[in-house]
Design goal:
Layout lengths: L26 H11 L9 H17 L6 H17 L22 H27 L13 H4 L10 H14 L16 H14 L3 E2 L10 H16 L3 E4 L8 E4 H11 L13
Antiparallel strand pairs: 1-3, 2-3
Amino acid sequence: MRPVFPHAMLQLQPDDYKVDLEVFEGPLDLLLYLIRKDELDIYDIPIARIADEYAEYLRLMKMLDLNLAGEFIVMAATLSYIKSRMLLPAESRPDESADPADEGKDPRWDLVRQLLDYKKFKDAADSLLEMERHRQNMFSPQGAPMVADEDLKQEKTLGEIGIFDLVAAFRAALERAPATPLIGEIEPARWRVSDKIDSILGLTAAKKRVGFSELFTKDSPRGEIIVTFLALLELLRLRQVVARQDAAFSEIVIMGSEAAEAEGAAAARPIIGGADHVEP
């Protein structure tokens, strides 16, 4: 596992501010994200590997002062407990169920069942959201959109990707950063979130699509990467920029909100009067 980054390097200047970001995804979303990212079998989860990755993501989100619900901590404890039970031979595992039918049951099964049920409802919600996006391109006979603008604003604040995709990109950037200076060496210059906000806005104004990696250089120290990422989160929260991916786990692209809307409008299929009526 990668070493935990020293917290002393993560402190912002007193006149900076911390991003107050609402995290819409929950602990089961993070588990499903890790399973999908690593292409794992949901029925045969390598619990030790997932527990370690889950704990690393929690450390990164705490490092950024993201608001974490208590359910995340409970899930981390649950994974650690399952991990400890998996280390024991089946005959030595404590019997915690009064039902004799559960004797010898795989300790992962309850978690797998929760994940499958959650995934079922999540997939259904995604299908409904896709239908909603399709309907926004339809118009009533009076010319009004079938989906109101205020309803469309209920989508994810972060744009078209989730918080865990952003944290994964942040983690990769930290791993590529130069090593933390040793005690006695000159500490790198401090950065301000407000300055990085201006920098990101300048990049998106000059260039339509900015890759996440373009926000940093190969020599960017960890302190600069952290402050730049906080600035990006604030811009996403304020809807000044949009984060997108062209394919699953491809590089995240940052766009100004107006450029993103123009690109989405150009890609949308105009539909008048109904789903089967296409404007010539």
